[in-house]
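Holo prediction. Input below; ligand is s-citryldethia Coenzyme A.
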Amino acid sequence: MNPSDEYRPGLEGVVATETAISFLDVDHEEIVIRGYDLIALARHLDYLSVAHLLIEGCLPSPGENASFTKGVLGHQTWEGPIENVLRNLAPDGHLMDFLRTGLSCLATYDPDLDDHSTDATLRQALRLLGQIPMIVANSYHIKHQQPSILPDPELGYSANFLYMITGRKPTIQESQAFDQLLTVYSEHEMPNSTFAAIVIASTLTDLYGALVGATASLKGPLHGGANEAVMRMVLDMETIDQVEPWLLAKLAAKERIMGFGHRVYMHQPDPRAVLMKELFQQLVHTPEQENLFEMFTRGEMVMQREKGLYPNLDYYAAPVYYLLGIPIELYTPIFFAARSAGLIAHIREQYAHNRLFRPRVRYTGARHLQLD
Ligand code: SDX
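Structure of the complex:
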């Protein structure tokens, strides 16, 4: 059977799979996560409860929450082999490459690696939710020849993640802000990295391999790499008066402005950006931070006026990371750490209702050439 003529570049607007995990209800400006609104989840629940919802399909009872959290924290040991592997990577390597290497190393030690049952992949989910923050945080310390930081048993999951990055015990406000940031990044229907993960999983390869593919995808500047680029961009502008001329010059040069536009949110704001902007403002305490907030809102106004584009999550998440004292090169690895809950949920769903992804092509090359 020849392929149909229904070719959509970048699969724009194409429904690629069925899922009960999430849906971007653009008409109602709602990000649906297993029936709940993501923004409401971020405001009222902690990240691990949302991770339970994503992976197990339901909000946890208090007992289930305690057991799930205990399971995750129980895997927050720092293994020698992973540290040894990471210490042998190039010192100027990208931290997303450290992350995908750490995941590949972890895979070789996972006893459930080739078992795709729901029980086995749940055990893997707990291991990964425990280990990924440690790989993310300690990749940074290893790359900068600093000692690794282990979790403090007195702190909760998100507070510990932030503590392992900065080496400083976060305030309650900082812990809550970071936890909300992890939740808004946890799941977003079918972005390139999630699609990469389910395409890879559809061959019935292991869950880690699907995550490594998603890591490579998320590193790209058109996708997860944008949050780092946003922060570098605004710092490069230096003063509020430079914001407009800086943007106008880039637009005149037909360059893309990181943090704006979205394949799905074409004509309305990204609901997550609205929450992150609110969080950014709550974290502003000094005149310098107030000036930074004004620079970001000035940029938003210019892009809206010049291109009719709205900020996406990355635009206002970047300054939240910044005010939490997180090094810029860790923004995308943290994005991945947060998204790991959604990715694992989609990979498990793919295993449970699998059909190998194998699209066709519209051929534009030569035909009927003859060998002499
Ligand atoms: C994430 O899919 C997801 O859900 C991803 C994500 C998630 O949670 O997983 O939301 C996370 O990846 C957010 C997006 C982060 N990326 C960036 O901020 C990079 C900058 N954004 C753009 O590159 C762009 O907006 C994309 C890639 C996000 C979407 O691009 P599309 O859908 O392919 O849109 P397009 O390239 O067809 O652009 C349509 C028009 C064009 O104008 P014309 O050339 O037709 O005149 O809008 C313009 C574009 O030039 N445009 C931009 C722009 N984005 C679109 N112009 C300047 N700057 C931009 N950022």
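The chain has two domains: 22-219+329-352, 226-323. That is the main takeaway for now.
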